[in-house]
C-alpha cells in the first residue's frame, strides 16, 4: 500500500474538566452529564453511548445537580440559579434566581409536577413545573444549616434532606419537618468536623439510605427515624448514591474512586424473607472522587474528578458476552476539536476558552518505515486567541488555505482574516458580520475559502460569502423535514458544489450550494452519524455511524454506491463492530481515490475500496502478518481495511496536500498527570 | 488486651470555688465489694451502692467544720473513720444517722490521713510523719506525737498509702522538701522507717501522681511526671532493715506517654497489673489536644490498649493529685460534673499469641477455630450467651459429672470416665468441664506421685478445648513424667505456650513440634540461653539435618502435617546462634557445624547478590522501553501493507 510520513503531534494540551453531576432519563435513554466548567453533554444510551449534544459552558455557570422532568432538563448550581436547557438550540432556555443562596441539589418528584431544590440558607424550595417554565410555589420549614442533598419519597408526600450532621424528613403537604436523623461524625481527628450528608435516597418502603463525608453508608428506617445499619466503606467521603429502578440495589461513589454496590437481599438462602442491605461488589474504575452516579437497567454509570465517564455493565444482566456487556470508558468527546489547513500545514486547536494555531514542523529527506526523521524546523505556535465574553467556544473552523479562522460561542460568531508571511502572522477581525449570524452549532469554510457555512437553529445553514473587502449573507439553506434538532456534522465538497449536514435526528441533508437548494436527503439510518466526508473526485458521501456501520452514498446518483451495497450485504467484520469508540473523522486521499481514511480514539484505518472486503474468517488486524510475508505472498492476504494501532489516544487524523499524515495524540497519561493528586491511600509496605 | 467497658455516672459533682480543687477527696471501699465510700471536699461522706448508682447513706459534719481526710472503713470493726478539722477523729457505724452523735476523739497533732485496708488495722499518719495504729491512738488520744519531718526544713507530705502484705503492714508516704522528693516506707510491728530519695527529673517538676502496689514480695511504686514519663521503683518488702540515712531509690522508665505540646497539667497514672497502667488527664496520642482521655497502656509493649474520652475537665487535687481510683476492676474518675465508674478488664494474654510468631498458616487453619477461653471470661459472662446461661450450664455439668472417680479412682477408671464425658458433652459444657477436669487430674498427680493418667489427659488435650493458660501445670507434669506423646500433643494443640516452657521442652527432647510452637524472639532468647552447649550443638545439628533434608527435595516436598517450614527452621537457627554465639565460638566440637553454617550463609549471600543484579538489569530493561516516544512532536515514517 505504501509509506506515509506522519506528523506525530502531542502538543495539544486538551484537558477535559471533571464530571460534577449526571441524570439518566430512563424513558428516552439519554444521560445528561454536567461538568465543572458548566457544560452539559447528552449521551444517547440507546445508540452506543453516542455523545449526541454538547451545551457549552459559561464562566459564571456552575452545575451541582441535573434533573430530568419528562424530556426537559434542569440544572441548579452554586450561583443560586435554576436553569432549564433548550436541547434543540443547545443553550439555556432560561435561568431563574431561587433567592436561597447557592443551590446544592435539585430533584423532581416521580410525578414530574414539582421540583425541589436544597439551598445554602437552609430552605427546601418547591417549584411547580409549568408548560413553558417553572414557578416558585413555597418553602418547606427552614432549617439551620445548608441542604446538601434531597430525595423525594416515590409517593411525593415526603422529602428526605441531607444536611450537616443530620438528615431531615419533611412532610410535603404541610411543609413540616417530621423526622430528624442524626448522623455520627468520623472517628479520631475528624470528630470535630461536621459530617456532610452528601447524598440521600428515599425508597418506597420508607427506608432512607445516606452517604456522608465520614465515609459511612447508613440505612435508616424513615418511619421511626432509627438507624438500621451503618456500613463504613471508606476513610474518605461517600459522595454519590444512586438507586436502581426496582430499588433492589444501591450504588455509592467514594473519594477513593471506588463504586460500591449494596443489594437488598437475604443474607442466607434459608431465610429469603429477611432481606437486608448487604454490601456486595466494589468496582474501581476511577482514580479520583466519584461525584456522579447512575444505576441504569444493565449497568452502573459513573463519573468524577478523573473526567472519564465509565459505563460498567452488570454482568448478571447479560446472557452472553456481547458488545453491550463490555466495560466502556468515554474519555474523549465524540466531535472534532482539531482542524487542519491541508494546504497551509496549519493546525487549529479548540479549547473552551481559547484557540491555538500551530504550524507543523518540517523534516529533511526520507527514512525507512519505523524511523523518526530529523527535524529541520520545529512546530511553532502562531496564535493564541482568547475568546471574548463569558460563553465558552462551541465550534470553530479553519479554512484549508489557512487564511480564515472563525469561532462561535452561544452568543456571538467571530471571523478573522489570517495572513502568514513567512514567519510573520497577522490577524484581523472581520468587523461587520451579517446580523443574522448570531451563533452557530457548526462552522465550515468552502474549500476555495469563498464561503462560510454556519449551522443555525432548526437544522438550517447560513451561507456567507467571503471576500477581501466584505462578508455578506447569501442565503439560508433549510431542510424540508422540519427537524428542530441541531446540526452536529457538516462537510462540503472540494469542487464547491455540495454541502452535507447531519443532525441529531440522524437526518443527512445534501444541498447544492451553487443553486442554493436542497439536493437530496440520504435515507435515514437508525444510528447517528459520527463522521462523514465527500469524496474529492467522485462526490460520494461516506458516512460512519455510532454503531460503526459505514455507508457510501452517491450524491450525483442519489443512491448508495455499489461498494456500499456490497459492504452491507457482506456485513462488517465483528472486530470492527466491537470497537468501543466512534469514528470521528472521514477524509480522502486525492492522489489515490480508492482510499478512505478514518480514525477513532484507538486506531487509524485506510479503507482501500479496490481490495476485497474481509469476511468473518479473515484475519482482520493483519498488518503484522502482511509485514512478515514476502512480496509474492502478500497480495493473496490483502483486504480492504488497513488498520494501524501505532498511534493511540487519537484526537484527529488528517492528510495534508503533500500526502503526509497529521496524527494528533493526547495521551491519557498526560491528562491523568494534570489531575490533582488523588486522596492518599495506604498501600502495602509503604 | 485491655478493655474499657461502657461506664456510668455514680454521682454528680458540685463544682468547687477553686478551679484546681477536686470535688472529691477520696473514694474507699468498705466491707461490701459493691459499695464505695465517697468523701467530698468539704463536709460530707456518702456511701454508694455502685451497681445501682444509689446512695445508701450520707453523713455530714456541722457547718464550719471541715473534713480533712477521706473517710475509710475499718474492716476489723465494720466502722467508718474520718478526720475533721485536722485533729478530730470520728468513728461511726453504717446505722448511725448523725455524725455529730458518733464517737469522736481529739488528738494532739494534725492528722494527714487515716489508711485502712482489708486484713489490717487502720493506721493514722500525722502531718509531721508519725504513724499510729488507730486503736492504740484512740485508747490515749492525747498521747504525744513525735515529729519525723522537721518543721523548719518545710518537709511536707504529698501523698500516702498503706499496703498490707501477708503479715506485714506498711505505710508509704512521699514528701517534698526544697524541690526534692522522698519516699518513706514505714513498717509496723516491728516499726522501722526507711527514707529514699527519688531521682530528680531533669525538668525539676514534681511528680504528678503516685501509685503503689504489692507484687512478688516487692512494693512497686509507679509515678508520673508532667513530661509524660512513668517511672517504676521497686522496694523489697523484706528490705535491708536498719540502714541509716537516706538511700537513693533507683527507678526504671516504664512508659513514655505522648503529651503533645507542653506538659501535662493534672494527670494521674495507676497500675492495674504487671503490664497495664491506666492514665487519666492526658491527651489521646491521635486526638486533638485539649481533650482528656482515660487510657490503658501496656507497659511491656508501650502500646495503647484502650481509651475513652472523658467529657469535661478532669478534676484534680492540690499537691499530689489523685484523680483516679481503681478498685476491683472498676476505675473511678471524677471529671466535669460527674463521678464516672468505668469497668475495665486486663486479660493476661499469652504473649506469644499477642505478638509472637504464629503458627504456620497451613497448620493453623484447623486450630484457629479453637477458642482460648479463660476462666475470667467464662465466669464473668463475656460471651454472647449472657451470664445466666453460663451459670446454668455450669450447674448442669457439675451435677452430671461425678467427681468421685476422678478424685480417688484408679487410672483406668479415670480414663473411661473421661472418655464418656468427652463423648457426651456439648461444646460449651465441654470447655468448662475439660478445663476443670484437667486441673483436677494434674493436681491429683502432683499430690499422689503414684497417680498419673496419661490416657485420660491425652484424651482431654485432644478435645482441643484446652490451652496452656487453662491448665499451666499439665505440660510440665508431662515433661516430668517424660510423657513425650502428651508433650507433643500439647505442643501441637496449645496455641499459647510460654517461651520458658517451650525451652524446657527443648531441653528434654527435640521434636518437630517444638519448632512449630508460636513464640516471640525477644522473649525466647533469654530462655534459650538456659540451654547448655552440648544441647545447643545437638539442636543445631538437628536443625541443620532437617534443613539439608528439605533443601534437597524442596520441590518434591509435600505439605506434611507436623513438619516445620523452611522459615521456621531458619528462624530457630538464627535464634540459637543469637543466644549462644559466644559459647559456640569457644566450643571446639561446634567448629565444624559453625563453618558449615557459615558456608551456607555465604552461598545465600552470593545468591541474593546475584538476584539483586538480575533485578537491577530487569529494571533497566523496563526503563528503556517507554523512553522511546516522549517527545511532543516527531515526524515518523510508517508503512501500511
What key phrases describe this protein's structure?
heterodimer, A: mainly beta, four-stranded antiparallel beta sheet, 4 helices, 4% helix, 47% strand, B: 641 residues, alpha+beta, five-stranded antiparallel beta sheet
List the chains of the largest interface with their residue counts.
A-B, 39 and 15 residues
**What class would the helix/strand composition of chain B place it in?**
alpha+beta
Rg result of chain B: 32 Å
**Average of pLDDT of chain A:** 91
> Can you tell me the residue ranges of chain B where pLDDT is under 50 for at least 5 consecutive residues?
349-401, 555-561
The best one-word shape of chain A is: globular
Total beta strand runs of chain B:
30
Low-pLDDT stretches of chain A are none
Q: Looking at the structure, what is the overall shape of chain B?
A: globular
Q: How many DSSP H or I helices of chain A?
A: 4
Query: How much beta of chain A, percentage-wise?
Result: over 45%
Count of DSSP-assigned helices of chain B: 17
Give the fraction of residues assigned to helices of chain B.
25-40%
Most strands sheet of chain B: 5 strands, antiparallel
Distance between the termini of chain A: 53 Å
The proportion of residues in beta strands of chain B is 25-35%
The whole-angstrom Rg of chain A is 27 Å
Averaged pLDDT of chain B: 76
How many beta-strand runs of chain A?
58
Domain Nucleolar protein 11 N-terminal (chain B): 1-344
GO biological process, one term (chain B): maturation of SSU-rRNA
GO cellular component, one term (chain B): nucleolus
Organism (chain B): Oncorhynchus mykiss
